[in-house]
Amino acid sequence: MSFEQQRAWMVQTQLEHWGIHDRRVLQVMGALPRERFVPPGERSSAYYDGALPIGDEQTISQPYVVAHMTELLALQGTEKVLEIGTGSGYQTAVLGRLAAQVFTVERIASLSQRAARILAELEIDNVHYFVGDGSLGWPEHAPYEAILVTCAAPRVPVPLLEQLADGGRMVTPVGPRGAQTLVRVIRTGETFKEEQLSAVAFVPLIGQYGW
Ligand code: SAM
């Protein structure tokens, strides 16, 4: 099967099959070449229904998890989004195609640089990159209508709550190392409504408000 066919297969048998229904998310993930974001030795597994190693003991998230977390943000195309954990840049690219602007923070410089290069090749030019501790957010550009965290902390980092816009949504894994709960926080004024969603397993958020 060509990568294009594998991508269509992924949308049908993983995303739609497991309940993703946001047409924009399905369309973007059905067009984005995931094989560009995985190491050369992993390309034949790019559309596999799971996470894959990307080096530096980090992973590119499972396609369904990327779709599910993105769908939970309910992006309309006008938002300024903060992403913590750029990793391979795959999730970043999905956000870039669905929102107005994306600010993404990664603690490993080589991953950030590699992601920036791939997104530039794909002409996704509404993304801003920062290398540092994402548990502190990126206060200079706050507030954000949506925040997506792709690494897990023992609790929701307070700076991220502060940087969420009124009416904004944050999706983040929270819990002990190895097994966490996916949490969505919706801010209304100074009230933060927290929904506990599903069981997930993410790499740790290493930083001042993480591990
Ligand atoms: N969504 C990414 C993708 O699709 O490739 C997967 C990201 S990976 C699961 C989590 C990333 O979070 C890793 O690249 C890791 O280095 C990064 N990370 C961990 N702690 C961080 C921190 N404090 N600030 C920024 N990034 C961090």
Q: What descriptors fit this protein?
A:
single chain; 211 residues; alpha/beta; Rossmann fold; two-stranded antiparallel ribbon; 6 helices; 29% helix; binds S-adenosylmethionine
Which word captures the global form? globular
Domains, number: 1
- Heteromolecules bound: S-adenosylmethionine
Which strand order spans the largest sheet, edge to edge or round the barrel? 5-4-3-6-7-8-9
**Gap between N and C termini, in Å?**
42 Å
Query: Class in CATH?
Result: Alpha Beta
Quick gist of this model?
This protein is of the alpha/beta class and 211 residues long. Helices cover 29% and strands 28% of the residues.
Chart the SSEs and their pairings.
Layout: H1 3-16, H2 23-31, E1 52-55, E2 58-60, H3 63-73, E3 80-84, H4 90-98, E4 101-106, H5 109-121, E5 127-131, E6 144-149, H6 158-162, E7 164-174, E8 180-188, E9 191-200
Parallel strand pairs: 3-4, 3-6, 4-5, 6-7
Antiparallel strand pairs: 1-2, 7-8, 8-9
Helix pairs in contact: 1-2
Task: Please explain how this structure is put together.
The chain has about 210 residues and is of the alpha/beta class. It has a single domain (about 50-200), classed as Rossmann fold. The protein is about 30% helix and about 30% strand. The protein is built from six helices and nine strands. It has helices at about 5-15, 25-30, 65-75, 90-100, 110-120, 160, and strands at about 50-55, 60, 80-85, 100-105, 125-130, 145-150, 165-175, 180-190, 190-200. A seven-stranded mixed β-sheet has the order 5-4-3-6-7-8-9. Strands 1-2 form a two-stranded antiparallel sheet. Helix 5 (about 110-120) links the parallel strand 4 and strand 5 (about 125-130). The mean pLDDT is about 95. The site of S-adenosylmethionine has 27 residues, from strand 2, helix 4 and strand 4.
